[in-house]
Design brief:
The protein is of the alpha/beta class. It contains 6 helices and 5 strands. It has a 5-stranded mixed β-sheet with strand order 3-2-1-4-5, sandwiched between helices. Helix 2 packs across helix 3. Its EC number is 3.1.26.4.
């Protein structure tokens, strides 16, 4: 299915998405992307439908061809203090703060958003599979976070973050059972799942 290039055909639009809400460890990451009519789809789609290599290649394409983009992250400590929903929405605000081009309309993946700087916004369920700007934001956010978790795996190899990226898997649970949580774990999240749990990310 080809994604829409624009919601309004009139305003400068920024698509926003986040990744990492359901993880037990690591930050939540959000991205904001502005595209124009010259931005081609080139396989850009919901990041969850793309393999690692395709996402990495598209990351370069988006950075080189988007009108503007920005990425922001918020730590497990912030998540524990403010809850994951507020942290996710605030991360989107931080990404929007970094854009050099001021959007006139914000497109948000999902059904919740906190108003931002008096700019109109639309929440779109499964927006990352409908609009190019949101899909591009999902790709940048996921690549950024996955690469970060791979680096953290070098420091904490017991939890399998190079493959599960902080989500709850058997390897992650076995690491928690044996070694306990790290400074990168979200203390407000339930961390004591049964190690026989199936992967659910």
């Amino acid at each position: 299915m080809e994604l829409y290039n624009s919601f309004s055909n009139t305003y400068i639009e920024a698509g926003c998405d986040e990744v990492g809400r359901g993880c037990l460890a690591g930050p939540v990451v959000a991205a904001a992307v502005i595209v124009n009519k010259n931005f081609k789809q080139n396989l850009v789609n919901d990041s969850k439908t793309l393999n690692f290599k395709t996402r990495q290649n598209l990351d370069i394409y988006i950075r080189e061809n988007a009108v503007d983009f920005a990425i922001a992250e918020l730590s497990p400590e912030f998540i524990d203090e403010h809850n994951i929903l507020n942290a996710s929405l605030h991360a989107m605000h931080l990404a929007l703060d970094q854009l050099g081009t001021r959007p006139e309309l914000i497109l948000v993946d999902g059904n919740k958003f906190h108003p931002y700087n008096y700019i109109p916004h639309h929440c779109i369920i499964k927006g990352d599979s409908k609009y190019l700007s949101i899909a591009a934001a999902s790709i940048l956010a996921k690549n950024y976070r996955d690469n970060l978790m791979i680096k953290l795996h070098d420091e904490f190899p017991e939890y399998g973050w190079n493959t599960n990226f902080g989500y709850c898997t058997k390897t992650h649970q076995k690491g928690l059972k044996k070694f306990g949580p790290t400074i990168h774990h979200r203390k407000s999240f339930r961390l004591d799942y049964d190690v026989e749990i199936d992967q659910f990310f």
